[in-house]
Amino acid sequence: MNFPVKITEDSLVARAARVAEIAARHADAVDFEGRFPQEAVNAMKAERLLGIQIPRHLGGEAASTTDIAELCSMLGQACAASAMVFAMHHIKLSSLVEHGVDSEWHSAFMRRIAAEQLLIASATTEGGIGGNLRNSICAIEIDGDICRLQKDATVISYGSHADAILITSRSHPQAASSDQALTAFLKDQYTLEKTHAWNTLGMRGTCSDGFLFKGEAPAKQILPKPFAEIAAQSMLASSHLLWSGVWYGIAVDAVSRAQAFVRAAARKSPDATPPGALRLAEVSNLLQMVKSNVVAGLKAYEDAKADGDKLSSMGFAVAMNNVKIASSETILEIVNHAMLICGIMGYKNGTPFSLGRHLRDAHSAQLMISNDRILGNTSSMLLVHKQDTSLLG
Amino acid sequence: MNKTVRDLVAKFGKLPVPVDQVADDADLYAAGLTSFASVQLMLGIEEAFDIEFPDNLLNRKSFASISAIVKTVDLIQDSRKVA
Q1: Which tens digits make up the pLDDT trace of A199-236?
Q2: What predicted TM-score, i.e. pTM, was given to this entire model?
Q3: A-B Cβ pairs (cutoff 8 Å, strict)
Q4: Which residue in the set A226, A232, A385 is minimally distant from B58, CB to CB?
Q5: What three-state secondary structure class fits A196?
Q6: Signal peptide: which range, if any (chain B) (predicted)?
């Protein structure tokens, strides 16, 4: 009997459940104080969850995007900011795993991430690019074996707490704005001067402050593939899918609270159906739609991964954009519904049915790469891309 | 066909450099072709050659360079002749 129990305890889900318990305990304080969820991230490191995506031969556990999305959802149910830090770390890691294994330096870097549980941040946003991460103003300068970069990064989520940053720039000082490279800088290779403070409505614990980034590192730390390819083949899909995992988690917890509220009311007066019961049925329907959408997106990604052409096709990009739009919009409806069910107990902070944090966190979803920008991008693709008319394809 | 494609890239590609400075096999995305301009370019090509790109050819590779575009258009025109 000991054997199966040991497996269960070591499974990714069991390890994430232990992290989620810690994250949940501190979620309100993290939100209220707008501070980094240090306890939860320490727990992720202790459970060795930061390296799971890395291939086994480099010391990881070769976890799939689907595996990781499940963990994002579990953490999202506990503390959305902790879950988002975990998701963003793994989105960056997916770029290394998908595009860095053939590079000696990046392979060694992955080995270190797994061994030392390093936390990786992302710096794709820049003052002046108007939110389009496929454009850079700053350029990396290569001087012999050394590269140097200075970037006015208006957002680097958990920048002050990261052990390394993957940062975009133009690939050389004469390059067009869309000709970008992605470079890994380790903590001792850069300085960050804080330029903007992250004081937001929700997702307060991601501490996505703005910084002036100045870095110098060996030039071999530049990823060997153009960022355009990295964005299309790993970042687009893993961002939309892992974010959606987090958002689904927020919605699940909101519905759990609403259900607990309705059940408590039903127990109090067993003769009458509680007024919120019908709305609970409605919201369970919405939740299932988000779940189906995310699961279908994950399956499409795992299928496309085997086929590079499919991965960079328009049909796939349209599908991933649609996953993001649907989950980010529907979770707002879900949390709002849950609030209608819980009434003033949901609106108030500090009750078992409080939903204020969920509602505020959920509002970030439409803005993380603005839905308007994504719809604009999809609408231009639909000028040439013909829809797949099959149900299962 | 190469000339027609070059004219279309000049018209719809909105590259920051003149098209005569772009070699046939140079990466158009590195030369500054944005995803929006690439769609305009695809529409322009569909119109000019009276073809429709099937979904399996709607990817970055098909439009990565002027010679890749020529090859893609060739492929579609050939398959039409067979059919």
Answers
A1: 999 999 999 999 999 999 999 999 999 998 899 888 99
A2: 0.93
A3: 61
A4: A385
A5: strand
A6: none
